[in-house]
Amino acid sequence: MDFRFKKHLITSALMGGMLLAPEMQAATYTVSQLLNSAGGSTFFNATAINASGQVVGFDGWGYGGITVADLWQPGSATPTVLGSLWGTNDIATAINDGGQVVGYSYGYNSLKRATLWQPGSTTPIELGALGGGDHWDYVIGGNSYATGINASGQVIGYSNSYSGTYGSGGCNYCGIQHAVLWQPGSTTPIDLGTPYNGSGFSQATGINDSGQVVGYGNAGNGGFEAFFWQSSSSTPIAMTSLGGGLSNRH
Fold first, then answer.
1. pLDDT tier at 63 (50, 70, 90 boundaries)?
2. Taking the model in full, what pTM does it have?
3. Among 95, 197, 200, 248, which residue's CB has the most CB atoms within a 10 Å radius?
4. pLDDT band at residue 71, thresholds of 50, 70 and 90?
5. Can you list the domains of the chain with their CATH numbers?
């Protein structure tokens, strides 16, 4: 048999097998619409999903109205409204495979606080802030936000210590934001620090099941740099941005 013809047959057979192989076929998806909570809210958003298909997010009633944290169970388009810290605004941002949900809550005139909802419960747990105090304490309190949670229940996010006296200018946003981590069972945040000898700010945006954390912060040149924390006791390691540009990991 002519070698070129034999090679053509082999190539054709291989290509035919590749075309027929199930793993090579394009994936197909079915779109399912999720509903908002009862009450005719004007907007809603899904923010995260776990391996079981549980979805979290929030919906609300626009400017001046309240926002509620939602949990959609697999196969159900109607959400369960998660409990509120003080009956005003709650945002769910992440869920792990165990069904633990995190996010943040805030009132009309209060600080924002990172929030945890345990599986099977709609009762929120207030996670602390670097400034200490409770969510009404403008003297020593601080804002905190939870952005992720891993399988062990380690929660990450960011927090700023409060400084100044509450009044005109909205000083409940004062203070430098630092990436933080809450260990399972604790409401006291661990300060993960900021890059470049503590100057600037940092935010933690993701955590894996080994406890490694990623996020971003000031690059020291007016831009933003992606950072990596090996553990809760480590200092942020800069992840060099390609081409020297911005490398915001968010």
1. low
2. 0.79
3. 95
4. very high
5. 3-244 (2.120.10)
